[in-house]
# Entry
Amino acid sequence: MSDSNPNKFLNVVAGIFLMGFIFFVLKELQAILLPLFIALIISFVFLPFYNFLISKKFPSALAIALTILCILLISNIASVFMITSANTFSAEFPRYELKFLNIYEDLIVKLNLSDKEVESINKSLDVKKLLMSGSFTSLITGIFATITGLLGNYVLILFYIIFILSETKGIRERISAAFSKKNEETLIRTIIDIFSGVKSYIAGKTLLSLIQAVIIGIILWTCGVDFVFIWAFLFFLSDFIPNIGSLVVTVLLATFMLLQFESILLPAIVVAVLIVIQNLKGNILEPKIFGERLDLSPLLLLFSLIFWGYIWGIIGMILSVPIMSMIKIIFMNIPATKPYAILMSNNPLTEKKRKKKL
# Structure
């Protein structure tokens, strides 16, 4: 007992020290690690296209070049739309802010409040300062500025993507040369499970989020909503921030539509349709497609949002769920860390049911 207690204490101290070191590295090396994580996710999204080219007997170098060209084309088109939309939004939105201010002042008059009560409400809400200083506009354009700010690391991200794609082909051969036959089979199986799981999640999640954003964009365009691209893009990004992201964007859209149409009927119908679409995707499509990969504890998701948001800001919040899903998939495929993967799950009984079937 006397020997085990010091060992437990040392393990706890070592664990705390390791967590502090990881936190320090993630924070201080943000300029290097954030582009790496983005490159990793982009690589997984475009890996099926790269593998398709390889299967058609394209040389590896040519397949990588065509994949990079495809990434460049899509990213440049998207960046032009983002910059144009952000500038248009900045120029046009102040009139919506004034309209909201007029509605707010009319509401105060209709409530027939005393001067003291009005002063108290104005002081607590500070609506004029929020709107007239352009804080809300700055918030929306700031999100686009953060995304387009990644263009400063564009070359670094592309270099990461090139190296990641080039590594996917020869890793099996290097493992075969480095390990014995028994260890080789175990390691290759584990790496393939991890790689395929992460790849299918990232690519599938991005594709589903993109399809949802396109459908929402078409609905908003049909209804004559302004800034359709901005709202569709915000829904695409917010889909990676569980629960909170989509809810915030939906509330913002509903408020904006109330200001634009000055009616509650159309905004209510549109928001109801969007909620149905989001629930169909989140509660039916994603669980069927991804299964356990999306089965993450809500408390874990909350802490991951806070942690990665503090470390890497808005981009960190967007990447938090893909990162935690990747960690869970890796843990699930390593026997020593599998218990931790089950602890990360929202429904640990799923794993028990799977064991009974085997």
